């Protein structure tokens, strides 16, 4: 990263932070660069990283769909760091680059996605591009496919990752493999 030098892994000594770093490396999103960059403020990083990992990895919404949404959002903000990362769990569950491309391009006409998944992708797209369109009519459509808890899970996921993507873009971050 050209705008903020990440710490060397040897400089991270907090056991809780080291465990979160291990979890990040196991999942693949975020990678160690994110942890090393934000480790200068462990009291801020630990709860944020814990929420990031659990929101992507856990919950009732399909992990592959959340991974596609995460990449879709990263591409919207032109964040090369998060756009390039892939969840190892999602790949193990069958996520392909074809699915990612379909979810980030013309998902509405894609046969890859169910209407339920298309509504979630539209939710992410509209929250980013034109939040005014996420109105009562939109939520009525969401409720045809998703429970209230699932809508909150998707919305919270979108809000969290959108913010993180924006920060990483400002830092001019690149994945470790591309650095």
In the predicted model, the low-confidence regions spanning at least 5 consecutive residues are none
Second rung of CATH, namely the architecture: Up-down Bundle
Rounded to the nearest angstrom, the distance between the terminal CA atoms is 8 Å
* Strand content bin: under 5%
Number of domains: 1
- Give the overall shape: elongated
Summarize the amount of helix as a percent range: 55-70%
> Main β-sheet, in a few words?
none
CATH homologous superfamily heading? AhpD-like
Class by helix and strand content? mainly alpha
**Structure annotation, total helices:** 10
Number of strands: 0
Q: From N to C, what is the helix and strand string?
A: HHHHHHHHHH
Radius of gyration: 16 Å
Name of the CATH class: Mainly Alpha
Residue-averaged pLDDT:
95
- Return the CATH topology: AhpD-like
Ordered list of secondary-structure elements with their pairings:
Blueprint: H1 15-27, H2 32-38, H3 42-57, H4 63-76, H5 80-84, H6 88-92, H7 97-104, H8 115-129, H9 136-143, H10 148-170
Describe this structure in words.
The chain has 179 residues and is mainly α. The chain has a single domain (9-178), classed as AhpD-like (Up-down Bundle). It is 64% helix and 0% strand. It has 10 helices and no strands. The protein has helices at residues 15-27, 32-38, 42-57, 63-76, 80-84, 88-92, 97-104, 115-129, 136-143, 148-170. Helix 4 packs parallel to helix 8. The model has no long low-confidence stretch (mean pLDDT 95).
């Amino acid at each position: 990263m050209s705008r903020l030098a990440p710490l060397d892994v040897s400089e991270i000594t907090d056991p809780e932070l080291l465990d979160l770093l291990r979890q990040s490396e196991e999942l693949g999103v975020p990678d160690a660069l994110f942890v090393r960059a934000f480790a200068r403020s462990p009291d801020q990083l630990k709860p944020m990283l814990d929420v990031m990992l659990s929101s992507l990895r856990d919950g009732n919404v399909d992990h592959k769909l959340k991974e596609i949404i995460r990449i879709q959002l990263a591409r919207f903000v032109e964040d090369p760091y998060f756009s390039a990362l892939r969840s190892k769990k999602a790949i193990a569950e069958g996520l392909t680059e074809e699915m990612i491309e379909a979810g980030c391009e013309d998902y509405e006409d894609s046969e890859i996605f169910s209407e339920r998944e298309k509504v979630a992708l539209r939710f992410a797209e509209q929250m980013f591009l034109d939040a005014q369109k996420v109105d009562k009519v939109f939520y009525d459509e969401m409720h045809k496919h998703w429970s209230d808890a699932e809508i909150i899970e998707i919305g919270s996921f979108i809000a969290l990752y959108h913010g993180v993507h924006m920060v990483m873009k400002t830092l001019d971050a690149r994945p470790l493999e591309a650095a």
